[in-house]
């Protein structure tokens, strides 16, 4: 059974953030994820989860100055103290929300990064992830790392599957896992089912979207029914985060998820696929 989580940073944006929980539950979701919880008190988020009987399945560590273009701290030399504070803050929220996964964004390489700079980022990344995994293990939480495509996020330090698998191997923490976003993998490498099979033991969370437009999964070049079939046959018991920008209204675009328990609006516009 595929368990779908609504990404409330992208879905149901027709509503104010705290109202998106009820909208997601009404549409058949049983879990939610989003980028960052930190603009809200933990208790307000916990109340929204409880009122709609939803699980909090994932959110990100504080990413540095997002509005200034920063995209995570984990690999940034010289920002280790800030990263450690981010881990503590994220785990405070994870405990309050009973969330068992937090995503540590890697950060950006300088545009002129040479091999020495890359090596410094790599060493910082490993040390920071060791700290994060150790702290997260104390509260039963997983830390996730996610390769992100460099078309959407130029310069992002972690962009390929093999790189992520090597980092997981080097750190060697059981609760450090892969956030396997099929949208990013398709943009960078393709070969999705083989990547899924090879990396299955390391996966802590999966996310989906259509490619190339990052709309609903039934738009674009990925045939998700085959992905879902392989996930079922592999016995995947985790969550699948729906991290896409609806092409129209969120509820109208949920037809693709009907067989997985979602309830699209009846008044769904007819639309071409693509
Ligand atoms: O963008 C993504 O795919 C990641 O999941 C994320 O949370 C950072 O933007
Ligand atoms: Mg993602």
UniProtKB/TrEMBL annotation:
<dbReference type="Pfam" id="PF01261">
    <property type="entry name" value="AP_endonuc_2"/>
</dbReference>
<dbReference type="InterPro" id="IPR053398">
    <property type="entry name" value="HPT_OtnI_isomerases"/>
</dbReference>
<protein>
    <submittedName>
        <fullName>Hydroxypyruvate isomerase</fullName>
    </submittedName>
</protein>
<feature type="region of interest" description="Disordered">
    <location>
        <begin position="253"/>
        <end position="274"/>
    </location>
</feature>
<dbReference type="GO" id="GO:0046487">
    <property type="term" value="P:glyoxylate metabolic process"/>
</dbReference>
<feature type="active site" description="Proton donor/acceptor">
    <location>
        <position position="243"/>
    </location>
</feature>
<keyword id="KW-0413">Isomerase</keyword>
<dbReference type="InterPro" id="IPR017643">
    <property type="entry name" value="Hydroxypyruvate_isomerase"/>
</dbReference>
<dbReference type="InterPro" id="IPR050417">
    <property type="entry name" value="Sugar_Epim/Isomerase"/>
</dbReference>
<dbReference type="InterPro" id="IPR026040">
    <property type="entry name" value="HyI-like"/>
</dbReference>
<feature type="active site" description="Proton donor/acceptor">
    <location>
        <position position="146"/>
    </location>
</feature>
<keyword id="KW-0670">Pyruvate</keyword>
<dbReference type="InterPro" id="IPR013022">
    <property type="entry name" value="Xyl_isomerase-like_TIM-brl"/>
</dbReference>
<dbReference type="InterPro" id="IPR036237">
    <property type="entry name" value="Xyl_isomerase-like_sf"/>
</dbReference>
<dbReference type="GO" id="GO:0008903">
    <property type="term" value="F:hydroxypyruvate isomerase activity"/>
</dbReference>
<comment type="similarity">
    <text>Belongs to the hyi family.</text>
</comment>
<feature type="domain" description="Xylose isomerase-like TIM barrel">
    <location>
        <begin position="21"/>
        <end position="259"/>
    </location>
</feature>
């Amino acid at each position: 059974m595929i368990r779908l989580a609504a990404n409330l940073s992208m879905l149901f944006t027709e509503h104010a953030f705290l109202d998106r929980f009820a909208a997601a539950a009404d549409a058949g979701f049983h879990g939610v994820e989003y980028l960052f919880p930190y603009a809200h008190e933990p208790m307000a988020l916990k109340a929204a989860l409880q009122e709609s009987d939803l699980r909090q399945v994932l959110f990100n560590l504080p990413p540095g100055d997002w509005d200034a273009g920063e995209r995570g701290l984990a690999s940034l030399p010289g920002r280790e103290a800030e990263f450690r504070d981010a881990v503590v803050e994220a785990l405070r929220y994870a405990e309050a929300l009973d969330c068992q996964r937090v995503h540590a964004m890697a950060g950006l390489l300088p545009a002129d990064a040479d091999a020495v700079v890359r090596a410094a980022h790599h060493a910082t990344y490993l040390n920071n992830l060791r700290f994060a995994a150790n702290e997260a293990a104390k509260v039963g939480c997983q830390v996730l790392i996610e390769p992100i495509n460099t078309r959407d996020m130029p310069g992002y330090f972690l962009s390929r599957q093999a790189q992520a698998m090597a980092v997981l191997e080097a750190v060697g923490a059981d609760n450090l896992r892969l956030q396997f976003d099929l949208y990013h993998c398709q943009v960078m490498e393709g070969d999705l089912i083989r990547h899924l099979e090879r990396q299955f033991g390391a996966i802590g969370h999966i996310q989906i979207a259509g490619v190339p437009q990052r709309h609903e999964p039934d738009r674009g070049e990925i045939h998700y029914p085959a992905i879902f079939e392989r996930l079922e046959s592999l016995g995947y018991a985790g969550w699948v985060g729906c991290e896409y920008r609806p092409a129209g209204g969120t509820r109208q675009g949920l037809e693709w998820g009907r067989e997985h328990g979602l309830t699209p609006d009846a008044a769904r516009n007819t639309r071409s696929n693509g």
